[in-house]
Design brief:
alpha+beta, four-stranded antiparallel sheet, 2 helices, 24% helix
């Protein structure tokens, strides 16, 4: 994928998937507003492996679904 997508477009196109976003554009609170989708998958580990393979300079990982209850998230 070569085109820059907004976060709304990403969430609409890739429902409940992990997304690797190159050169994310953020707001003052560092919330992602847009970027180029490099890879997406329902499998988080696959997206992590792709990030290691592609080695983008600036990137973000997103999950577009609902995080299950009792799930810990480390930032």
């Amino acid at each position: 994928m070569e085109k820059i997508m907004t976060i709304a477009q990403i969430e609409e196109q890739f429902e409940s998937e992990w997304i690797l976003v190159e050169d994310p554009q953020t707001n003052e609170a560092l919330d992602i507003q847009s970027g180029k989708v490099l890879w997406h998958s329902k499998d988080r580990d696959e997206v992590y492996r792709k990030a290691v393979e592609l080695r983008p300079k600036r990137f973000a990982m997103l999950y577009t679904g609902q995080i299950p209850e009792n799930t810990a998230i480390a930032l």
